[in-house]
Specification:
Elements: H1 21-25, H2 39-52, H3 58-84, H4 96-117, H5 121-137
Helix pairs in contact: 2-4, 3-4
């Protein structure tokens, strides 16, 4: 790949964000409480809804639910390609809001897959988040 084949994202409008690198560096993740948003109650409801009508159950059902992540990540990639206009046949077909929506779908799908793997998804996630925060930020999550 030559230099002319690469995209320089510094001139690409990636949309506005409320966070800066300084904000993230100084963030106090101990004050973050994901439970206040009803996140886990919603994940449990989505899991129950999907489980009630899944055509394939057991181990295969779990594997298919985890594979759903690949589909959602692919849709995110498609949105990024569309937002940057990298497909000459389609041009600019997506917005950065579309990318954000697809990323949310990835997160939701991952959390539902985790809930499918274990009924203690909330505790497993909180423990893992705390370990990542400690390793990466030198602080602990709530």
């Amino acid at each position: 790949m030559s230099d002319s084949d690469t995209t320089d994202l510094k001139d690409t409008d990636l949309g506005e964000t409320d966070l800066t690198d300084t904000d993230l560096k100084d963030a106090d993740f101990r004050e973050t409480d994901l439970g206040d948003t009803g996140l886990w109650e919603t994940i449990d409801a989505l899991w129950a809804w999907l489980d009630a009508d899944q055509p394939v159950g057991g181990r295969e059902g779990l594997l298919l639910r985890i594979l759903k992540l690949s589909e959602e990540v692919g849709e995110t990639a498609q949105a990024v390609i569309g937002a940057t206009g990298q497909n000459p046949r389609k041009g600019t077909s997506h917005t950065w809001d579309d990318v954000g929506s697809e990323l949310c779908d990835v997160v939701i799908t991952a959390l539902v897959a985790l809930r499918t793997l274990t009924p203690q998804a909330r505790q497993v996630f909180a423990g893992h988040l705390a370990r990542v925060a400690e390793r990466s930020l030198g602080t602990t999550a709530p």
